[in-house]
Specification:
Layout: H1 3-21, E1 34-35, E2 48-55, E3 64-66, E4 69-71, H2 73-83, E5 87-94, H3 96-105, E6 110-114, H4 118-121, E7 124-126, E8 132-141, E9 159-163, H5 170-173, E10 179-183, H6 186-194, E11 200-203, H7 205-216, E12 221-238, H8 244-259, H9 262-270, E13 283-287, E14 290-294
């Protein structure tokens, strides 16, 4: 993606993302947004209720609240799973570090959006395949004119804001030579950047667009190219449930089923996902001893 094209797309998204993308309706009957405080579908006695942990901060395009309705790319997938299965989902919003700890201990069943790392694989049961992709990118104030060539060692003189317990890809996570300042959420990151208390922040640009437009009314920042990392996004299940392996297998089959559907393809346009958030036309993945080719991906 060229720099000029990406900047144009960024500012178009900044102006219209929430008012257009969040209100867009493709009339997909299976994908119905729901009130935050309620399950996706009222659980019957036959449903297995799984609690799903979300950060307290909106995380577009994956999950966000608008007019009392919790919606987004991830929510639509959970809605599909619930409509096709014995599961019913109950949402719990917590600070991000508490989400991770609660699922680790088994107090909450499922994390909705998680990058896979070696340490995390030992703690959580990841639902294969990944259901989407996400990019992490540096954000700077326009008037500072910071440059990023793709070499992290060029940023050693700068202070970089991060969210506590987030993964930003292996290279950045292991870059101990960088001066990182960890805070509780993306809103605090943006506040630090605008207040010039850090030089750069790193994260999901679509989330930053949303925060800048609705909380700070600011267009004083720019995204630095190239991106830092493009990573697959997973659901992750607690290993503290005795039945977690059975649940894991069932959820994996449902994710595979949904990823091959037309409704899945429509989500990328519904939420105006940037090109780097979209999967390849073909994806080969391994489930246990089986190799599966997904060729119906947009």
């Amino acid at each position: 993606m060229s720099l000029s094209f990406f900047k144009g797309l960024c500012f178009f998204t900044l102006v219209c993302f929430t008012d257009v993308a969040l209100a867009d309706d493709l009339s997909m009957q299976e994908l119905i947004p729901v009130p935050v405080e309620k399950n996706l579908i009222h659980a019957s006695e036959k449903k297995i209720i799984l609690t799903v942990g979300f950060s307290e901060t909106d995380y577009p395009p994956y999950n966000f609240e608008k007019d009392g309705i919790y919606q987004g790319f991830t929510i639509d997938i959970l809605n599909y799973i619930e409509s096709k299965s014995e599961f019913s989902f109950k949402f719990i919003k917590l600070p991000w570090p508490r989400v991770l700890q609660s699922v680790k201990k088994g107090d909450v069943d499922l994390i909705a959006t998680l990058f896979k790392t070696k340490p995390r694989e030992g703690i959580y049961a990841f639902i294969e395949p990944a259901y989407g992709f996400e990019i992490n990118q540096f954000v700077s104030l326009k008037n500072k004119r910071h440059q990023y060539s793709g070499d992290l060692t060029s940023l050693t003189e700068l202070t970089i804001g991060t969210v506590r317990e987030y993964s930003y890809g292996k290279a950045f996570d292991q870059a101990d030579f960088l001066n990182k300042r960890a805070v509780i959420d993306e809103g605090t990151l943006v506040k630090l950047l605008l207040g010039q208390r850090v030089d750069l922040i790193i994260g999901n640009p679509m989330t930053f667009f949303h925060i800048l437009k609705h909380e700070f009314k600011s267009e004083s920042v720019e995204m630095l190219n190239p991106i830092v990392e493009r990573s697959p996004v997973y659901f992750a299940l607690t290993k503290q449930r005795e039945d977690y392996q059975v649940i894991q297998q069932e959820l994996e089959q449902l994710v595979i089923q949904f990823k091959q559907s037309k409704a899945y393809q429509q989500l990328f346009d519904k939420y105006h996902l940037l090109p780097d958030y979209r999967p390849a036309l073909q994806q080969t993945m391994r489930i246990g001893s089986r190799e599966l080719k997904l060729t119906n991906l947009k």
